[in-house]
Amino acid sequence: MDNQKQEIKQLCTSFRLSAIAAGLDSIVATAESEHIVYVEFASRLLKVEQVHRQQKDESRRMKSANLPKNNDLSIYEAKRNGLTIKRLATLRELNWIDQLFNIVLMGPSGTGKTLLAAGLSKDAVKAGYNVYFRTMEEMVSTLKTKDFVRSQAAEYKKMIRANLIVIDDVMLFPLEKTVAVSFFNFINQIYESTSIIVTTNKKPTEWAKMLEDEVIATALLDRILFRCEVINLTGESYRMENRKTFFDK
Fold it and tell me: Which helix (H) or strand (E) holds 197?
């Protein structure tokens, strides 16, 4: 019996079935005690491997997503920022990703735009989508260096194949003309195959000023807003309301 189990483990290693190999002894013991038939035994073995691979794949996708630490929507106070609980629940169903809808989260600093975007991204990763969360600064760095830095070229190729791209703090700072063109080309390449979440504290009418080019701004907004929900978040800054101090009160 022990020799047979060892042979099975070796075969599992050959076929890269690491979860079955690791759990074989326990599954065999359970099967013997419960008098499980062969078909059920085989099913349990394969389910162990399936769960392991799903967890491993989710972990890989979560690492690639590169989400901010604050990404738990259970702590998100929807009503506080003008978003109803019903609308939040609809967003978390993620049907809009399959429908290739975009979301623009707009509002002053500290109103929960990044947390909401990160939380929806986390939900999407757990649902099996390929997600990339990047700040505008990180996006600009990739756009500037993708043609001569191998790692950035690989990053760019991954992003254009994503199910969901989040770009945080869009138009927080002005863009050089060449970068603005590259950013437009990126959006133009993905908008028909990828959902996009944008967080910004600038109204669409202000984008032309940040890009210093009304034509590019119009073309960019045309693609983002074509199938899009614009969500205006309101209220006082959460960070300022909960500002920390090292002085004794």
Answer: strand 195-200
Report the distance separating Cα 55 and Cα 64, nearest Å: 14
Cα–Cα dist 197/104, whole Å: 6
Assess whether pLDDT exceeds 60 at residue 247. no
Residue 122: HSE in the Cβ half-sphere, 13 Å Cα cutoff: 14
Taking the C-alpha atoms of residue 11 and residue 51, their distance in angstroms, rounded to an integer, is: 19
Confirm if 102 and 225 have CB atoms less than 8 A apart: yes
Measured CA distances, 181 to 137, 157, 175 (Å): 15, 18, 9
Whether residues 139 and 236 share a domain: the answer is: yes
Shared domain for 84 and 151, answered yes or no, is yes
Q: Are 75 and 138 in the same domain?
A: yes
pTM reported for the whole predicted model: 0.80
> pLDDT tens, 166-207?
999 998 888 888 999 999 999 999 999 999 999 999 888 888
Does residue 158 form part of some domain? yes
Q: Starting at the earlier edge strand, list the strands of the sheet with 195-200.
A: 131-135, 164-168, 195-200, 102-106, 228-232
Look at residues 30, 64, 98 and tell me which one is the last residue of a structural domain. Answer: 64
DSSP-assigned states of every residue in 68-125: -S---GGG--TGGGT--HHHHHHHHT-HHHHTT-EEEEE-STTSSHHHHHHHHHHHHH
CATH of the domain at 181: 3.40.50.300
Which conformational region is residue 102 in: left (phi greater than 0), alpha (psi within -120 to 50 degrees), or beta? beta
Same domain flag for 129 and 59: no
